[in-house]
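Re: your question from the hallway

Yes, I did run it. Sequences:
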Amino acid sequence: MSYLASFPNDDLSAVLAGIPEVAAADRRMVREIRSHVPERWYALVSVRIASLLGLAFRLEEVRDPLDPELAQTIAIDWSTAPLGGTERAILAFTEKATIAQAAMRASDVDGLRAAGLTDRQILAVASLVAYQNYALRAAQAYGVRAR
Amino acid sequence: MAKVVADWRRATLDQQEFALLEFAEKLTLMPSLIGPDDVERLQDVGLTEQQIFAGIQAICYRNFISRIADSLGVELDDEEAVAPEILEAFRGRQGQPPAAHAPAGKQAADR
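Structure:
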């Protein structure tokens, strides 16, 4: 149950539904991001951000479709995970944008481009990283499940 | 406003504003430590649940949009509209070392 009695639900989507305009914007954002990045990228980024924010206990909420063992490896030390070059570039970008956003430079985007991402995919990945920095904090603050 | 950017704890704030900024800082820099006590603290200073809901959205939204801007190299939409002392305060904070689990001061004070 949410910490807020006026929003008595136990997952983020349901709590946001308390303010329809917020819920609609959230749904549209998720839909757009998911339409431009594979489910696996979505999960890799989500798991890594949960870990970086100290919210590793939320891995089960965001790891699908990754298997639990891979999710744990991504959370603890993704450099040892069996990942391809594109996924490594995405996780490097994710890490820096989450914990050192003020140090982001054009070279960080160049790293994604060099790994083969199109500009639209780069925009989608940046949006995903930003979105999970929003959604995981919101879930924690409301006291509900993330997704 | 420049005082809030530079060091909000020394700025002239009322009880609700202080509590909200304290909550914003914790949710931004140490989200894993946020719990029901933090929400109760906001209620204790008189914020309604609707206001707390909106406050959380505002904090999380800033954590979203500032990352989009920084990641993709997007500048402020209308930097000239921001008072010089506020811009100076932002620049001063950017030189500070990052806190544990967190980006540099720019984020906490971002736009």
